[in-house]
Amino acid sequence: GSNEAFLKAAEEVKVLKQTPNRQEISSLYGLYKQATVGDIDIDAPGMFSFVAKEKWNAWNAKKGRRILLKNKHSCYLHY
Predict the structure, then answer these.
(1) What PROSITE patterns does the annotation carry (predicted)?
(2) Of 10, 27, 51, 62, which alpha carbon lies 20 to 30 A from 76's?
């Protein structure tokens, strides 16, 4: 089903032919967290926790969106 396809795609993204840039990685992280956990449910980290803050921002940017897997290469974002 869709869950198995999503998990397969999540594994495939780990072995991409070209390394995504920082913005793409951040966006992928946000999409992954939103698809697997849903809306962010943790407080923002402190301002000196740079990596944690970037991850939090990426996930928070996807808040309220419902993500449905279309196939292993794309998904639908519902606002």
Answers:
(1) ACB_2 (PS51228)
(2) 51
The Cα–Cα gap between 19 and 15 comes to 9
Query: 66-71 and 74-78 as β-strands: parallel, antiparallel, unpaired?
Result: antiparallel
The rounded distance, in Å, linking the Cα atoms of 31 and 67 is 8
Q: Are 65 and 77 in contact (CB under 8 A)?
A: yes
pLDDT for the residue 79: 42
Model confidence at 2, pLDDT cuts 50, 70, 90, reads low
Residue ranges of domains in the chain, CATH in brackets? 2-78 (1.20.80.10)
Mean confidence (pLDDT) of the chain: 81
